[in-house]
């Protein structure tokens, strides 16, 4: 059993002052949330009216979303029928290639119609050398992975004939190297900012999430990939380009019968929503604008407020930014996403180890792991919060995935568990806790010893409590800020009013989400919902149908590839 109350070498008062100061820096008042959301709306409008703003508001040329009426019976108001490729869905097979962050995936997707699809996929690791080397090497690797997938994972023998549009055809069936055969159509999910000019054209604007491959910025990403396929004589044609948020939006719409927003809370963060073309004034007199209707806009909200005038920046955030591969860029993403939360937490923990005149954590000792840049994975924070949740008397029900893996519940969202609203006690008096809470802290202490590679003698229960509190502070702020982004889209699309008091017409407002944080981080969804409720009121929040767009990148790319082939691209 660990020593319970040792305030080794510190004084209660100085420790409390330091912890209180950190806590107040990470607090976000309701007013601050409203201010941030208001700024979001201003930046949305700016990005819709002019090019070259950090919040890029990229027109995707996806001019509608599936509505679930693939038998062609019903088209809900607000969506246009111009891309009714879904009405044409029989059984279509496409390849999808997904380059997003942690992994590269190659998928074969069969769109079966009637909200159904099947998907076979293989993940490939992208090394640091590829992320930061020459772009041609990275794209050659993508082509090699597609080649390996087609060779190693052949389709079932009873697949139909080699016609990309024939019922039951498989991608492999189409891999005939004779020039007369049709090339395998492939949709590319490329989860980085790209200025799209057509469904199958777009220039890389910048890299994010630790990528910095040379000679890609300013180049057409479809061309870079196609050149790599051609260099390897692969009979594959990249016909569509899609961001992962657009994929999430389309695939959630396909399975749920409509969707207004696709958003990612994973290694990075971003959202794509359905906007009226008339509001995308930067399209000027282009044919797309004249055509009117709706278009999916990729907000690239990870770059919100790069100037940090509105975001609640702390010294820990500034340190992270300064030491990052892309200083002064992707400010919002650095407060929110899985790539960075562990690093912010590590920065706080280090400051507590180094606290003067007395250390507050671990006897003033760090480990090689804690000293390492990005040494603390966000998954460890998740594990720590889960250890606390596990022994709770009344587990929170508002964070569960329900309905298989496809919907995230809003149950009891109006009654958050205390740990959602006050995750901020730093437990300076651990010996006053109940035996149950102490045993939960004991579990956290074990995780800390193991994952931080620390000497057990240096880790007290109080240290465990402080590490848990730190994780809660950082994750709670991230979830609240994520709520601002979602609330801004709700207001922009006239589903809500900032400040509340709006009764939506729609019974359900469907949102597709994906990413490790929203899927796995304990209470992230519930905390996000609490923030949305603060911003737009209970009426709207209660109608949010937030569901996992689990295979969004693959299915979304396939849906776009289908649209592209219908357009003869
Ligand atoms: C990228 C977005 C992407 C998001 C989620 C961000 O870093 O800029 O394009 O959608 O990550 O993967």
TrEMBL record:
PROSITE patterns, per database record: HEXOKINASE_2
Top-level division of the source organism's lineage: Eukaryota
Hexokinase C-terminal domain: residues covered: 261-388, 421-562
SUPFAM superfamilies for the chain: Actin-like ATPase domain
Gene3D superfamilies referenced in this protein's UniProt entry, alphabetically: 1.10.287.1250, 3.30.420.40, 3.40.367.20
Matching Pfam families: Hexokinase_1, Hexokinase_2
Transmembrane segments: none
Coiled coil: none
Keywords: ATP-binding, Glycolysis, Kinase, Nucleotide-binding, Transferase
InterPro entries: ATPase_NBD (IPR043129), Hexokinase (IPR001312), Hexokinase_C (IPR022673), Hexokinase_N (IPR022672)
Family note: Belongs to the hexokinase family.
Name of this chain's protein: Phosphotransferase
């Amino acid at each position: 059993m660990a020593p319970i109350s040792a305030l080794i070498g510190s004084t209660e008062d100085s420790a409390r002052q330091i912890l209180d100061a950190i806590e107040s820096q990470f607090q976000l008042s309701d007013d601050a949330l409203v201010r941030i959301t208001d700024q979001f709306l201003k930046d949305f409008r700016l990005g819709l009216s002019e090019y070259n703003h950090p919040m890029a508001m990229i027109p995707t040329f996806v001019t509608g979303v599936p509505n679930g009426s693939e038998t062609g019976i019903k088209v809900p108001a607000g969506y246009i029928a111009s891309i009714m490729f879904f009405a044409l869905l029989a059984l279509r097979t496409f390849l999808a290639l997904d380059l997003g962050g942690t992994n590269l995936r190659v998928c074969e997707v069969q769109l079966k119609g009637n909200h159904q699809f099947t998907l076979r996929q293989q993940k490939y690791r992208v090394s640091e050398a590829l992320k930061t080397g020459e772009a041609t090497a990275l794209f050659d690797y993508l082509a090699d992975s597609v080649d390996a997938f087609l060779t190693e994972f052949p389709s079932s023998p009873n697949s139909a004939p080699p016609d990309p549009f024939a019922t039951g055809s498989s991608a492999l069936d189409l891999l005939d190297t004779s020039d007369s055969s049709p090339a395998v159509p492939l949709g590319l999910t490329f989860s980085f900012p790209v200025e799209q000019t057509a469904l199958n054209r777009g220039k890389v604007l910048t890299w994010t999430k630790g990528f910095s491959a040379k000679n890609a910025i300013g180049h057409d990403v479809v061309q870079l990939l196609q050149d790599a396929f051609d260099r390897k004589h692969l009979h594959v044609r990249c016909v569509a380009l899609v961001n992962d948020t657009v994929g999430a939006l389309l695939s959630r719409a396909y399975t749920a019968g409509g969707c207004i927003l696709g958003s990612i809370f994973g290694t990075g963060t971003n959202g794509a929503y359905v906007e009226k073309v008339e509001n995308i004034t930067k399209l000027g007199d282009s044919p797309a604008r004249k055509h009117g209707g709706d278009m999916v806009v990729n907000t690239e909200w990870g770059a919100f407020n790069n100037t940090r005038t509105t975001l609640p920046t702390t010294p820990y955030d500034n340190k992270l930014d300064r030491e990052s591969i892309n200083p002064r860029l992707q400010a919002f993403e650095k407060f929110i996403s899985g790539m960075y939360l562990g690093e912010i937490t590590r920065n706080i923990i280090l400051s507590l180890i180094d606290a003067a005149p007395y250390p507050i954590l671990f006897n003033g000792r760090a480990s090689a792991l804690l000293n390492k840049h990005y040494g603390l994975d966000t998954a460890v924070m998740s594990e720590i919060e889960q250890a606390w949740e596990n022994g709770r008397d009344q587990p929170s029900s508002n964070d569960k995935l329900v309905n298989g893996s496809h919907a995230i519940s809003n149950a009891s969202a109006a009654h958050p568990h205390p740990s959602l609203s006050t995750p901020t006690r730093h437990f300076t008096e651990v010996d006053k806790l109940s035996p149950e809470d102490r045993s939960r802290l004991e579990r956290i202490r074990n995780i800390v010893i193991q994952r931080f590679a620390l000497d057990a003698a240096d880790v007290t229960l109080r240290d465990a409590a402080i590490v848990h509190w730190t994780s809660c502070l950082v994750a709670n702020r991230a979830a609240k800020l994520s709520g601002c982004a979602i609330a801004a889209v709700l207001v922009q699309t006239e589903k809500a009013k900032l400040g509340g008091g709006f009764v939506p017409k729609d019974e359900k407002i469907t949102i597709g989400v994906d990413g490790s944080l929203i899927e796995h981080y304990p209470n992230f969804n519930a905390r996000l919902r609490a923030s949305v409720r603060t911003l737009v009121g209970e009426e709207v929040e209660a109608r949010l149908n937030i569901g996992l767009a689990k295979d969004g990148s693959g299915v979304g790319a396939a849906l776009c590839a289908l649209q592209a082939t219908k357009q003869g691209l």
